[in-house]
Specification:
single chain, alpha+beta, 6-stranded antiparallel β-barrel, 4-stranded antiparallel beta sheet, 5 helices, about 20% helix, about 30% strand, globular
């Protein structure tokens, strides 16, 4: 009985230490975003800027990652694809080269360098432009353990309702954010998705995801969503259906059994678990979100 207590105590101690480090990292990330980033240079969808009173959704800042077994790669192209849902983004993203995204003292340049640290934290930056012209930022802090690897989202699947699909051919050493289209089931706090990797695998219990702000439906005007709201997964109901703790009653629903409704859906940012072979593990890498820095 005594020996069985040690693994639990060690796990709780690690979680407590990770949370403490994540709080410290959020403060550092906020300072870096405001001091090192020229907010005038970040990409904003010009179609939104032509309409008065329209806030942009939350976009992903470029970040660095490492191909498993390879060298560091600037994932600016991935951020562009995630923001634009296109394999051939027509706009240039700001080149940040993943500056200071790791808890390491020195950014690892090879997979061997990355493997030298058993427990690592990363932060990822998100931004949006408000209708008044100012920028707002958000940060997600994730954990990464030695020998873990993660899959990117395959944005060659153009139809967002057919995402998410994993790009398993080029695994990455550090967590990768996915932009996933979901709908709310009427009368519930449940989210569901269509096709691709099961939503319950992408966002297992304990996962935290942020509403991105992009909406879609059959006919305008489309309802708004609480952009930037963080949701916590408490259970999975079916393969492609999860339940969140927060009240979703203010978000328009989509009844999959009713082909005549507006088929309203919206996008969220989430970080899938580390992979185990070709499958995803049981734990989300996200420790916390901090929105509107």
């Amino acid at each position: 009985m005594v020996s069985a207590m040690f693994p639990v105590a060690l796990t709780e101690h690690r979680m407590s230490a990770d949370t403490s480090r994540a709080l410290e990292m959020v403060s550092k990330a906020e300072a870096m975003l405001h001091n090192r980033l020229d907010a005038r240079l970040v990409w904003i969808d010009p179609n939104l800027l032509t309409d008065d009173g329209i806030d942009s959704p939350w976009n992903l800042l470029p970040f660095a990652n490492i191909d498993v077994g390879g060298n560091a790669v600037d994932r600016t192209d991935y951020a562009a694809q995630a923001n634009l849902r296109s394999t051939l983004p027509p706009f240039s993203e700001l080149q940040l080269f993943g500056t200071d995204v790791l808890s390491d003292r020195v950014l690892p340049l090879t997979d061997a360098d990355a493997q030298r640290i058993p427990n690592r934290l990363m932060w990822y930056g998100f931004y949006r432009q408000l209708a008044g012209g100012s920028k707002s930022f958000a940060v997600a802090v994730c954990k990464q353990r030695r020998r873990q690897f993660f899959f990117m989202q395959d944005f060659s699947v153009i139809d967002p309702t057919l995402n998410p699909t994993a790009l398993t051919s080029v695994p990455q050493r550090f967590p990768v954010p996915w932009r996933v289209t979901v709908s709310r089931l009427p009368g519930t706090n449940d989210l569901f998705s269509f096709g691709g990797v099961a939503l319950a695998q992408l966002a297992p219990r304990g996962s935290k995801l942020m509403i991105q702000g992009g909406v879609d439906g059959d006919a305008p005007p489309l309802p708004a969503v609480p952009t930037g709201r963080v949701l916590t997964v408490i259970d999975f109901v079916a393969t492609n259906q999860i339940r969140v703790r927060e009240d979703l009653s203010t978000i328009a629903s989509n009844d999959p059994a009713d082909a005549n409704d507006n088929n309203f859906n919206f996008d969220v940012w989430l970080f899938p678990p580390a992979a185990s072979g070709a499958e995803l593990g049981p734990d989300s890498p996200v420790l916390m979100w901090k929105v509107s820095l």
